[in-house]
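Tutorial sheet, problem 5. The two components below are modelled jointly, 477 residues in total.
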Amino acid sequence: MIVELTLNGSPARLEVPAHWTLLRMLRDAAGRTDAKHGCGEGVCGACAVLVDDVAVNSCSLLAPQVDGASVETVAGLAREGEMHPLQEAMLGSGGVQCGFCTPGMVISAVEAIRLGAAGSDEEIRHSLAGNLCRCTGYGKIVAAVAAHRDGSAAAGGFAGAAPGGADRTEAGGEGAAPAPGVGIGP
Amino acid sequence: MYPRPFEYVRPHTTADALEAIGAVDREARPIAGGQSLVPMMSLGLATPDLLVDLAELPLAGFERANGTVKLGALTRHRELERSAELAELLPLASAAARYIGNPRVRNRGTLGGSLSHADPASELGAVALTYGGFAVIEGAEGERSVAIRDFFQGFFATAVGPGELLTRIELELPPPGTGHGFYEVANRADDFATAAATALVTVDDSGACTEARLALAGVGDRPLRLERVEEMCRADGLEQDALERIGEAVIETVEPEGDPFTSADYRARAAGACAARALGSAWRRARGEHR
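Model answer (structure tokens):
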């Protein structure tokens, strides 16, 4: 079938089988390998992209479901060769090691900041739940998101990154209230 | 790692969708947010021949009517989580929605999809059971209402029959003086609940408990209401010593399964702790002691 969409700001017309996932279409039909194939079952977040400005796991959407939509991968965040400030912050805070989780982390964090869901380290961690990193650890990634939110691209390099950041076991109640008045339409 | 081939249609009316999923010669499945179904297809656990995408149907959104809130089946988890109006009307649903999957899953996943999928660890199943009300199911013969207590029929099994769709649920608004509480234990932040508890507690002017509702997720083949424990709340109140007895009663009542990561005993104890904490915070909210 033909899927017509806006991909990183440009119109795209892709011919793919209806049973392909969005991730497979991005990588194998559009050559957008910056969306990473990790688990393929909606657990790791490496394939996260924005669909009509909403972050989704592209492995858990089907290609025909984005017909007519605007899809943005992490590469689409750069403007005229300049990296997105959050990407700069990830470098500045040492939030990147092997880089495999980074595209999904950046997509999720960009959405979190736009929704006002990155006000504290706790909120950032909630917003990045489901984006797994297996090497650098989460402390520096959280520090990068906080630095970007606060308007400073660099959090002082590796030495300046926040300590700690071990995996958190989630056992909790209602927690921090989400920002009021922010809704997502159907 | 990828879904097996299938045919895909995206009808514009509920009637056309019902006709498509009513196909008898092949396995047709409705798809809404797809956050359970697409991963299941990628894992080979679901192999439909025909997917009927419900995205174009007018089944999103909510409205307050006659002491209930009507919620369309396509209402996304993210709206439950982030809508200030829903947080006011159904605060327990908002509190629980934050614990579904992760933000990407909540951006796509829908209320109707979650309830129809009927994973016994689903937070929303327990939420619906706690508020009570009706599930509205549409089929070729028209619409029918099923009490939510009769909706969940077992492990991934509901009252929705072949060729039918859950189109909305109608949750009962609790009376003034009601507080809510939610507590969940999971191995990881976005993992399935080891156990989760949803509670509503209503108090009178003197602050005494007049009604308590408690449901649990993750400890049975479906979400469970614990009426014996609710009766204890009405009889004994919910001060700390009563909550400890309530926690013990929950541990004695539930009969969860164990798995390689979580023993049945641990799961039961987690359920007891979740129940006591959810009821405790519902009680304190009802009495105006915290928001």
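Marking note: Helices of chain A lie at 22-29, 85-92, 102-114, 121-127, 138-149, 157-160. Full credit if you identified this.
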